Amino acid sequence: LMKKEHFRYLPVFFFCLAVIAGPATAILLKYDISLFPDCNTYLDLARFHFGNSPVRGYRILTPFIAGLLNMLSSGMFNQLTPRYFSGDFSLPFCFFLINTVLMTWFGTLVYRYCRSFGVGQLSAVIGTIVMLSCRYTLYLAALPLTDALFCVVIALTILGLRTKDTSMLLLVVFIGPFAK
Length: 180
Description:
The protein is mainly α. The chain has helices spanning 10-30, 37-46, 61-73, 90-116, 121-132, 135-142, 147-163, 166-175. Helix 1 packs antiparallel against helix 4 (90-116) and helix 1 runs parallel beside helix 5.
């Protein structure tokens, strides 16, 4: 999946990261995740507590990676906790890091999809900004949810079909069932 031609999209990746990171950080710091069952379920999955939700219980990839990152960081992200943030900050921040990267990858795939139709760079950037500036894109990047991976799977599917890229489609076959 990582061919030399993919590195030419690195500036697009960093552009997407710049568009998403600031607003997503504001959502992470202001949103009370304890009020929402979805967030609590995924936080519990990241802590390897199962049984909260049979509906969301199979969406394990993002929570497991967040839990692993939290374990490897030994909770060091708690030192970044703002004074007004209530509760554990380290694990939600790990979700934030993972989901922000996933939504950045999603933005890069949207850009590539637009370009696959032969549109100019400016038009593809505008289309990408439209997708990334959507309110829900920022929520998916900021909060302990698994929908960012689902967005990547959808984008990989449509881009893989459009460009006839078998490696993208094989990746979708393996991660898709655990995304949503």
